[in-house]
Write a structure and sequence with these properties.
mainly alpha
Length: about 110
C-alpha cells in the first residue's frame, strides 16, 4: 500500500499535497497499530499471543481493509479518492487498537 502511494503520479499541486498527506497518514497509522498491539502484550513473551488475539478481535475490520487493498491492486490507475477511503478504514482500525485496554486483549 505504501508503495502504491509512492507510485502515484500527481498531475497537480493539490494531488502532490494529497500524496504526501497519504504517506504521513499511513506512517502514523502503522505506528498506532504497532504501539497498540505492543502495549496489549505488556511483556515481550506475550507479543505473538497478542498479535493473534488482536487479529481475532478485529477480524472484520482487517478483512475490510484487506478487501480494499485487493481492490486497489486490481485497478491499473487508482484514483486518489480510493487511497483516502482506504486510509480512513485503516485509521478506524488503528484508533480501535489504540483505545483498547491491555486486559481486553490478553486473557
Amino acid at each position: 500500500f505504501g508503495e502504491a502511494i509512492a507510485n502515484l503520479q500527481p498531475s497537480s499541486h493539490w494531488q502532490a499535497l494529497a500524496r504526501e498527506s497519504f504517506r504521513e497518514d499511513l506512517e502514523w497509522q502503522q505506528r498506532a497499530l504497532t504501539t497498540g498491539v505492543l502495549i496489549s502484550a505488556e511483556k515481550a513473551e506475550n507479543i505473538p499471543e497478542s498479535v493473534q488475539l488482536w487479529e481475532q478481535k478485529y477480524q472484520s475490520m482487517i478483512e475490510r481493509w484487506n478487501s480494499m487493498l485487493a481492490e486497489l491492486k486490481g485497478v491499473r490507475e487508482p484514483e486518489y479518492a480510493m487511497f483516502s477511503v482506504a486510509l480512513r478504514e485503516l485509521l478506524d482500525l488503528a484508533q480501535a487498537t489504540m483505545h483498547q485496554t491491555p486486559e481486553a486483549v490478553i486473557h
